[in-house]
C-alpha cells in the first residue's frame, strides 16, 4: 500500500515549480500504478500553452476559475470547481487562470517526476525520476 500526504509531497522533490504553475506529483511511474496523480496549481492571471503529445490527461478542478481553449477549433470551456476535462485526443490547448486554479490531474502513461513543458507545451516520455 502507498500512503502519502500532500503536505509531505510538497516538501520533497515531488514538487515541481514552473513560471505559470506548480505541480506536486503524489504518484509517479516508479509507483507502478499505471498512471501518475498530481495536485497542480495554475497561478492567477497566467496563460499556459500545453500539448501533451505523449500523454492522456484527466483534470478535475478543486478550486479557482479559468478556461481552456482548444487550438484546433478555438472552442473555449469554462473551468470552475467541480469541472472535469479530459485531453483524450492529445488536445493542444491554452489553459488560463482568472483566479488561481487548484487541479487534480491524472496522466497516462505516468510521469517520472521531473517533467516540465518544452517549447511546444509537451512533456517528454522519459525524464529523471524523483524519490518518494
TrEMBL record:
Pathway: Amine and polyamine biosynthesis; ectoine biosynthesis; L-ectoine from L-aspartate 4-semialdehyde: step 3/3
Annotated catalysed reactions: (2S)-4-acetamido-2-aminobutanoate = L-ectoine + H2O
Alphabetically ordered keywords of this record: Lyase
Cross-referenced Gene3D superfamilies: Jelly Rolls
Entry-linked InterPro entries: Ectoine_synth, RmlC-like_jellyroll, RmlC_Cupin_sf
KW Lyase (keyword) present: yes
EC numbers: 4.2.1.108
Pfam (any one): Ectoine_synth
Source species, domain of life: Bacteria
Top-rank EC class of the record's enzyme: lyase
NCBIfam families: PRK13290.1
Function (record text): Catalyzes the circularization of gamma-N-acetyl-alpha,gamma-diaminobutyric acid (ADABA) to ectoine (1,4,5,6-tetrahydro-2-methyl-4-pyrimidine carboxylic acid), which is an excellent osmoprotectant.
Record-stated family: Belongs to the ectoine synthase family.
Protein's name in the database: L-ectoine synthase
Taxonomic lineage from the root: Bacteria, Pseudomonadati, Pseudomonadota, Gammaproteobacteria, Oceanospirillales
Amino acid at each position: 500500500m502507498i500512503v502519502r500526504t500532500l503536505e509531505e509531497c510538497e516538501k520533497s522533490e515531488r514538487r515541481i515549480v514552473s513560471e505559470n504553475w506548480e505541480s506536486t506529483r503524489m504518484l509517479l511511474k516508479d509507483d507502478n500504478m499505471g498512471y501518475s496523480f498530481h495536485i497542480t496549481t495554475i497561478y492567477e492571471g497566467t496563460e499556459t500553452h500545453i500539448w501533451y503529445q505523449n500523454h492522456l490527461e484527466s483534470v478535475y478542478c478543486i478550486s479557482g476559475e479559468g478556461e481552456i481553449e482548444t487550438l484546433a477549433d478555438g472552442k473555449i470551456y469554462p473551468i470552475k470547481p467541480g469541472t472535469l476535462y479530459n485531453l483524450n485526443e492529445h488536445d493542444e490547448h491554452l489553459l488560463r487562470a482568472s483566479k488561481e486554479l487548484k487541479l487534480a490531474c491524472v496522466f497516462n502513461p505516468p510521469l517520472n517526476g521531473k517533467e516540465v513543458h518544452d517549447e511546444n507545451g509537451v512533456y517528454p516520455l522519459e525524464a529523471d525520476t524523483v524519490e518518494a
